[in-house]
């Protein structure tokens, strides 16, 4: 401080304190962006996690592949998810956060590919009397009765029990025709009512063009060894071309999709007594027809093509009825809000449900708005043992309140802009939930008068296929029935009655009553059971009961039923999409009269809760309108029910879709892209999915990173694009994998590991040279390595990029990022440098192999018998020789540029004068000196004076500095002369 700053009045000693010990704020630690699949988590948007435990909470743990199990219901874990291993490898060193982009299937609006479309579909052609084909087949199960003509109608009608998806051939029942005194039996027959045995065991004939005819006995008792999901194939990938991914002996022509045990159990249709069943074609490509107008048909459930990933939703929550009970109509209830997934695809509906609880009317005179809580729960918890995932308390519908539901949960979502190729944020309130966002009804969001007293009191159930048959006040047209059940008007089995259900043409054989060969019946599609009584499950306090959706096996059970997720899948694409989510089928514009999809399966409302003769509370649809519900009895209102403690209900999520080709072990496998002669974003959904994910992180002002990796991706055009993005950003290094080095089982079937090595070091070197990449912003390694899954001990082959992310992290932790991530000190994979155990390599490289690879800028991973597996190179993909053709120097320069850029912001917009220049130098020079002391650079020079920032630059508001550095080089070659001297020689000579 200048002496002029002191104020001297009389003699004395004046002391001023100057604190120069402030520590400048360190720039945020920079880590990699990793792109890949995972079991769950926000998709197609970058999410930064600080630790591996955070990663597991958001995205799940590592997936080794070959998991087996009930794949269609539980998910596809048949191929390794390399991105999860890369995240684990890097984060074990705990040097920086990881930004992960989870992949779900995406598709451009102009996709024109015949095989590269998002979603999945069966490949068979419709079946008629002359040809055979694939599609989807539903088994409808009926209770046995002495009079089929009446017992098969209405509530006692057929219940959809199971759906088979067939790539070729058909599905039929085998057995005796149903009906009193029936003696006719069929070896196999569809569109025919067939009796089970006395214990509810059916026989199904799967007649495939590849595997031939299979006869399988089964029931729907999930405690039985004959349970359908134990007896039938549930792996869609086994229907792929024989030998493509699995041995030919593993091939199946079909897979079992949804089964609906809860509803069957509710109607006593799981076995133990004789049942009747009939197999009918479903959707657009199934047996018993198919030649009907496209406008009539549902484009599913056998064809989910051209559908990118969709977000699951919870249907509109509605308010209580404030009008006259006698005129109450639940679908007219005021909508309040709905919940939409934030990017989790179908995981959300398979794992989470939502409960509204602690519903409270206004307790003061200053506001009419009440409060409530919203709780995200595990789908398969029960009201006896609630498992909370997230909760938001003291919510209100008051738009001016800080507790407004939209404000406390969030309304924002990310939308891909196809023009700018970046994500745009839409919505007013930032997301505070990891799983959902809120969409408000416009009247509620606008604070419309007269609605202040409303509270969430119910919800619209999910859409469903329209029941076919003699239902009260429902008229089903022939064309509509045809489209629901997949029966064409020009084919046998097309005689549908408009109000009495379906009468099967006798030309297809006897169908029920042996005297008439005709059957009139109704066909019902599933919906999850609603809680009937507050006493269900034996709760000690019945006010803890959540009305609405109930997930238990039976009404009195406390055990959850896994089948409850199946009715909430996205079965149909005819709903269309709006803003990337399922269209609102409850809107007035949705034409329920002509659609095969009902806009909603039910409307649940607490207004229909009433008391029984013994004083307990139970749900009775229509009881408010009849004046019997608690809120409609005498002078009672909704407040009476809330004051009694019944203030909670549960709703499902539904309609999420991952957009993946489920008949492939890895839906984004490389060969599926390269098999297209010229893959583009418009003819390959997988190509588009990867390219969009890479472009998502292309903006350096949006995502902070210093590494980019898409582990396992080997398509040249896409790995080249990753390098280009890093070069355009000029602040990141792309770690890429080469094509055909190793061909894992999800790429193609091979009988042994040795036949999976797809190239040689010489071929790999030549192939890379032909690409002429010449960029210091990319690097690659050879060959693949083997790791061990920690939980199971399973051995997994992983691409070298996975191991290298661990090496780069551990090298940075043990030394600095400008040290070479190679050699025995920092690149010893056997010694744990990868962060995950490395057990083996796909190829043992001899010295000649290593030379060939390194000359082509491919970094070898060598295996030495005595010293183990080690990274033996650190070149970038730059062809020209310079300091930047080494990884340690490229990472050093990236680090310096990033850190200096951050430090420079401290003088931005300050005066362009000498004192500011001095301050800038005081920020940068200590930083460079520190890097020098730590052997990142051997020398440096910073020039900032009138020779760099000239008057004309000052006039342009520019401060111009020059920084010159001499990077420290790594030792890669050691030359030693051994001189053998004679006995009389002097070493001093």
Topology:
Blueprint: E1 32-36, E2 47-49, H1 52-59, H2 71-74, H3 82-91, E3 98-102, E4 119-121, E5 135-143, H4 148-151, E6 158-166, E7 170-176, E8 185-189, E9 194-195, E10 202-208, E11 212-218, H5 228-231, E12 254-259, H6 261-266, E13 275-282, E14 303-305, E15 313-319, E16 335-341, H7 347-351, E17 352-360, E18 371-378, E19 388-395, H8 405-409, E20 413-417, E21 422-426, E22 436-440, H9 442-445, E23 456-460, E24 464-465, H10 478-485, E25 502-503, E26 520-521, E27 523-524, E28 547-548, E29 577-578, E30 581-582, E31 597-598, E32 603-605, E33 609-611, E34 617-619, H11 638-643, E35 649-652, H12 670-674, H13 685-696, E36 707-709, H14 716-729, E37 733-736, H15 761-771, E38 778-782, E39 785-788, E40 795-798, H16 800-814, H17 823-826, E41 838-841, H18 847-855, E42 859-864, E43 868-871, H19 887-904, H20 914-933, E44 937-943, H21 951-955, E45 962-967
Parallel strand pairs: 1-3, 1-36, 6-27, 28-35, 36-37, 37-38, 38-42
Antiparallel strand pairs: 2-3, 4-14, 5-6, 5-13, 6-12, 7-8, 7-10, 9-13, 10-11, 15-16, 15-23, 16-22, 17-18, 17-35, 18-19, 20-21, 23-32, 24-31, 25-26, 29-30, 33-34, 39-40, 39-41, 42-43, 44-45
Helix pairs in contact: 3-16, 13-14, 15-18, 19-20
């Amino acid at each position: 401080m200048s002496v002029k700053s002191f104020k001297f009045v009389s003699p004395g000693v004046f002391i001023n304190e100057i604190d120069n010990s402030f520590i400048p704020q360190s720039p945020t630690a920079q880590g990699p962006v990793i792109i890949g699949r995972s079991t769950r988590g926000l998709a197609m948007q970058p999410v930064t996690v600080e630790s591996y435990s955070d990663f597991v909470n958001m995205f799940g743990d590592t997936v080794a592949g070959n998991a087996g199990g009930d794949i269609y219901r539980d998910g596809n874990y048949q191929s390794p998810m390399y991105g999860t291993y890369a995240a684990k490898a890097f984060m074990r060193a705990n040097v920086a956060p990881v930004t992960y982009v989870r992949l779900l299937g995406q598709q451009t609006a102009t996709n024109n590919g015949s095989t590269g479309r998002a979603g999945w579909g069966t490949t068979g052609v419709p079946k008629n009397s002359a040809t055979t084909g694939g599609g989807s087949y539903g088994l409808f199960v009926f209770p046995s009765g002495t009079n089929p003509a009446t017992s098969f109608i209405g509530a006692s009608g057929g219940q959809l029990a199971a759906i088979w998806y067939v790539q070729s051939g058909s599905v039929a029942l085998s057995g005796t025709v149903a009906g009193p005194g029936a003696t006719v039996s069929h070896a196999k027959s569809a569109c025919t009512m067939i009796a089970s045995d006395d214990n509810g065991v059916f026989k199904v004939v799967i007649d495939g063009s590849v595997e031939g005819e299979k006869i399988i006995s089964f029931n729907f008792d999930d405690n039985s060894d004959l349970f359908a999901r134990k007896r039938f194939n549930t792996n869609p990938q086994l229907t792929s071309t024989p030998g493509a991914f699995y041995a030919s002996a593993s091939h199946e022509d079909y897979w079992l999709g949804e089964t609906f045990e809860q509803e069957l159990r509710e109607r006593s249709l799981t076995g133990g007594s004789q049942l009747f069943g009939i197999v009918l074609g479903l959707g657009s490509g199934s047996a018993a027809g198919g030649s009907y107008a496209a406008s009539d048909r549902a484009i599913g459930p056998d064809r989910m093509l051209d559908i990118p990933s969709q977000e699951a939703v919870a249907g509109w929550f509605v308010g209580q009825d404030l009008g006259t009970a006698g005129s109450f109509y639940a679908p007219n209830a005021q909508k309040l809000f709905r919940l939409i997934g934030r990017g989790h695809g179908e995981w959300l509906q398979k794992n989470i449900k939502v409960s509204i609880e602690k519903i409270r009317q206004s307790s003061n005179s200053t506001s009419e708005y009440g409060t409530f809580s919203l709780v995200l729960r595990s789908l398969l918890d029960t009201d006896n043992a609630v498992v909370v995932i997230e909760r938001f308390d003291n919510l209100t519908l008051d738009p001016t309140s800080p507790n407004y539901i939209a404000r406390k949960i969030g309304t924002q979502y990310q939308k891909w802009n196809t023009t700018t190729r970046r994500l745009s944020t839409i919505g007013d309130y930032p997301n505070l939930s990891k799983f959902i966002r809120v969409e408000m009804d416009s009247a509620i969001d606008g604070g419309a008068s007269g609605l202040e007293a409303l509270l969430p009191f119910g919800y619209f159930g999910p859409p469903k296929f329209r029941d076919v048959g003699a239902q009260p006040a429902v008229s089903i047209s022939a064309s509509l029935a045809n489209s629901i059940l997949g029966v064409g008007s020009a084919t046998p089995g097309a005689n549908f009655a408009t109000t009495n259900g379906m009468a099967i043409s006798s030309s297809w054989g006897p169908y029920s009553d042996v005297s008439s060969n005709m059957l009139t019946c109704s066909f019902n599609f599933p919906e999850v059971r609603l809680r009937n009584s507050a006493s269900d499950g034996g709760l000690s306090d019945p006010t803890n009961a959540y009305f609405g959706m109930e997930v238990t096996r039976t009404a009195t059970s406390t055990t959850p039923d896994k089948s409850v997720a199946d009715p909430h899948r996205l079965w149909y694409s005819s709903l269309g999409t709006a803003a990337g989510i399922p269209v609102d089928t409850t809107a007035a514009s949705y034409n329920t009269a002509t659609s095969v999809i009902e806009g909603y399966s039910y409307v649940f409302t607490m207004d229909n809760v009433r008391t029984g003769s013994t004083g307990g509370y139970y749900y009775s649809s229509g009881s408010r309108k009849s004046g019997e519900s608690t809120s409609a009895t005498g002078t009672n209102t909704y407040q009476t029910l809330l004051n009694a403690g019944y203030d909670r209900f549960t709703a499902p999520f539904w309609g999420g879709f991952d957009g993946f080709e489920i008949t492939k072990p890895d839906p984004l496998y490389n060969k599926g892209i390269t098999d297209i002669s010229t893959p583009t974003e418009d003819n390959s959904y997988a190509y588009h999915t990867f390219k969009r994910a890479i472009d998502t992180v292309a903006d350096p002002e949006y995502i902070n990173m210093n590494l980019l990796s898409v582990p396992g991706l080997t398509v040249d055009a896409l790995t080249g694009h990753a390098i280009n993005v890093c070069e355009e950003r000029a602040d990141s290094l792309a770690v890429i994998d080469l094509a055909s080095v190793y061909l894992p089982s999800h790429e193609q079937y091979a009988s042994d590991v040795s036949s999976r090595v797809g190239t040689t070091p010489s071929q790999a070197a030549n192939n890379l040279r032909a690409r002429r990449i010449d960029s210091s912003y990319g690097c690659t390694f050879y060959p693949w390595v083997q790791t061990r899954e920690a939980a199971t001990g399973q051995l997994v082959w992983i691409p070298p990029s996975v191991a290298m992310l661990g090496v780069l992290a551990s090298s940075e932790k043990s030394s600095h990022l400008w040290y070479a991530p190679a050699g025995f000190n920092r690149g010893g994979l056997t010694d744990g440098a990868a962060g995950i155990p490395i057990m083996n390599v796909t190829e043992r490289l001899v010295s000649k192999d290593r030379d060939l690879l390194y000359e082509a800028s491919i970094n070898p991973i060598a295996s030495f018998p005595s010293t183990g597996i080690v990274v033996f190179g650190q070149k970038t993909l730059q062809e020209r020789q310079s300091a930047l053709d080494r990884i340690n120097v490229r990472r050093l320069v990236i680090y310096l540029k990033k850190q200096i850029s951050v430090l420079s912001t401290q003088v931005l917009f300050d005066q362009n004068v000498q004192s500011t220049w001095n301050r800038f130098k005081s920020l940068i020079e200590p930083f460079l000196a520190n890097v020098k002391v730590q052997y990142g650079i051997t020398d440096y020079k910073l020039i900032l004076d009138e020779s760099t920032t000239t008057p004309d630059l000052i006039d342009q508001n520019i401060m111009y500095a020059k920084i010159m550095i001499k990077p420290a080089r790594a030792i890669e070659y050691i030359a030693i002369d051994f001189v053998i001297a004679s006995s009389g020689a002097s070493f001093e000579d």
